[in-house]
Amino acid sequence: MDCKLAVSLMHDYLDNDLSEPKQLELKQHLQECAECRVNFEKLEHTDMLLFSLTHHATKPSDDLADRIMGMLPKPKKQKAWVTWVRNHPALTAAAMFVVVMLFSTISFWNQENQLVVKSDEFEKLVIEGDTVIIPADQVIAGDITVENGKAKVYGQVNGNLTVIDGELFQASTAHIAGQVKDIDKAMDWIWYKISNLFTDVAYR
């Protein structure tokens, strides 16, 4: 018997499909051929292993399942504030806007104070140093804003007058048709800026 035939008969032998004469012939060949004998032992070992796996009912071990689940990466838990941000986008945007405005206005507030004057009729105003004067013979149409300075009103203002971080003086001859705002606190100034911003957006 040659080795090729012996190998083909090994499978039938292990499956009990080999006739007795062929079994004797195969056994004789295995005694004479060391290589086929080694291959047969490996094949026999593999067949026994497969038999034990397929014929022994095995239930999945709870301990094994727990260990496998423990090895899996755990899903990352989202922080509470991240969940809140995702559930309230409008409030988050508003809060971010207020924070940005707060920091920008505070940083601007801390800068070197310079006189800032806003008026549609700037040429009618008299500026002496850090003092803005509305002369008695002048009528100013529109709003006037004075930042980081003094405002002295002797004439007429047909609008609002706002003095930020400064001083306001009104003579007996002064007449202001609109509102007079004297803002000298940082938080009041910030609120004034935010209010004006929303007012400008509303009228655009």
TrEMBL record:
Transmembrane segments: 90-109
InterPro entries reported for this sequence: Anti_sigma_zinc_sf, Znf_put
Gene3D superfamilies (alphabetical): Anti-sigma factor, zinc-finger domain
Organism classification: Bacteria, Bacillati, Bacillota, Bacilli, Bacillales
Annotated family: Belongs to the zinc-associated anti-sigma factor (ZAS) superfamily. Anti-sigma-W factor family.
Coiled coil region boundaries: none
Domain Putative zinc-finger: 3-37
Protein name, UniProt field: Anti-sigma-W factor RsiW
Keywords: Membrane, Transmembrane, Transmembrane helix
Domain of life: Bacteria
